[in-house]
Amino acid sequence: MKNMLQRLILTFLLSCVAPYCLALDSQTLPDVKAGIVHMTTKDPDKRVGYSIGDIVEREVILTIKAPYKLIETSLPIVGYEKRYRGKPIGVDLQAIAHSKQEYKDYTTHKIKLNYQIFVSTVVAKNIALGPEYLNLINTQDKKDIVKYRIPILNVSTSPLAIFGQVKVENNMSPFLPPPLLSAEKEYVRLKIALGILTLSLLALVYIVGQRAWLPRMGGRFATAYRAIKKLPDDDAGIKQAISNLHLAFNQTAGIAIFNDNLEDFLKQHPDFLPLKTEIQQFFGLSRQIYFEPDAVHGAGDAPMPWLLHFVRRCRDCERGLLPSPVMGGV
Q1: Record: fold of 30-164
Q2: What pLDDT, in 10s, does the model give residues 68-85?
């Protein structure tokens, strides 16, 4: 009876001491050699301002080269309360999610850790989450067991209420910048407005421009318009303007254009159909200036302004635009 009682007492003592022995063995394992494990972490952007009940999420991605494998039983235990120098710090592991992908030469582990804050202080306080220790085993040598240390994540808790007199400038954290107003919508609107303005300016240049900056801007009638604008308002200037217009029509059609083949020209160049009557008036004016002084043309008593307005309308048709109004200014 006495021996049985001693055995029970010994068994009870071993069961109590075993977890501490295992923890001690885990802490005293040698560190894994450099180059075996590659780690990246996705830490929260927020590092300050946590209060009681808040969750701090952290993701650790480990790449472990063969022949080492993670001993999954060494993963952090949910509900374990973190301690510093044997004293609880008010943080425990609320949840853990682990997934892995195995390849020929390495294994990738994704470990998501959710820590929950259970402490409330009257002043801001720094809290260290971690470190966490993971055990690795060499599959080619079962006696080769090493540990890998996941580094600490430092966060800061804030009190729920302020006690006493507080100087704001002394309690401002350099880790948390002041919040900025988002101007993304305004930037999008500004870009759209600039795009519309640019298109409008291009359209304006295309309509009123006199140089060959864009396609169809350096046509025959655009050249004639620039030349006629420089001519004097006298008989010699009028004759030269008529000659320039005849040259523009002939170069556009590829043949000499007069009233008798005007219909063929308009079929080949339908953009000039709105100016059919004015083209006939131009040929009548040309006949009066060069051949028949008494010929009727309908171009008015001021041929030079009429010719300038006419060649401008021809230039609009040449560019594929609606010609400027008949009564518009020159």
Answers
A1: Immunoglobulin-like (2.60.40)
A2: 999 999 898 898 777 767
